[in-house]
Amino acid sequence: MEEILDFLAQLDADNTREWFDAHRKEWAHVKARVAKLAEELIEGISAFDASVRGLRVQDCTYRIARDTRFSNDKSPYKNWIGIFVAPHGKKSGYAGYYLHIAPAGDRLVGEHMLISGIYCPEPTLLRSVREEIVDNGAELMKSIDAAEGFRLNTENKLKRVPTGFPADSEYAELLKHKDWCIERPIDEKFLLADDFVQRTIAEFRKTHRFIEIINRAVQYAYEEMM
What we know:
Helix 3 crosses helix 8 (196-205) and helix 5 (123-146) packs antiparallel against helix 9. The protein is built from 9 helices and 5 strands, in the order H-H-H-H-E-E-E-H-E-H-E-H-H-H. By secondary structure, the protein is of the alpha+beta class. It is globular and about 60 Å long. The chain has a single domain (2-225), classed as BirA Bifunctional Protein, domain 2 (2-Layer Sandwich). Strands 1-2-3-5-4 form a 5-stranded antiparallel sheet, with helices on one face. The termini are far apart. 47% of the residues lie in helices and 11% in strands.
């Protein structure tokens, strides 16, 4: 893990193609370590969530090169590493388990983090999750409370309950969300611990029921589309 943190800190200090080209050998080592970490997380999470069995490393990891076409920030590389273990892979639309490593801080999350949930779902999935909340809000809240050490991210919300949903619902605040993620910040002591992978898997296990409920809604939406 130290090798990953070191590389990202250096990249953050000199985020240029020239620096990256001069350090491609180091990146190859880091990339291999990230792949190994992804394999370990897939295997460990699969032990309690069968829906992610059979995933490959490439289904759960991201290119380090940034797409700068529509961004004011033209830095060519990400200064963070992310691993997202979700049913059918990172682009499936399903909720999953996300490890974010950002030693220098970043504009995406800003710190090391464990996150479970669904981020910016497409409209059909968004509506289905809200319908799940109307029907089973108590169950979802119970799953959030059961994820000890995690907090519900409340940054991406509407000001009002969306049209078509009850404004007087007991779960009105949840209905305002545009994504549903529970998160647990972690520090470098956590990352550098010998049992880091085992501890990470144990933390994600706490969020399994939350993921199950969200993905029940996602699955229903996909079945309705058929």
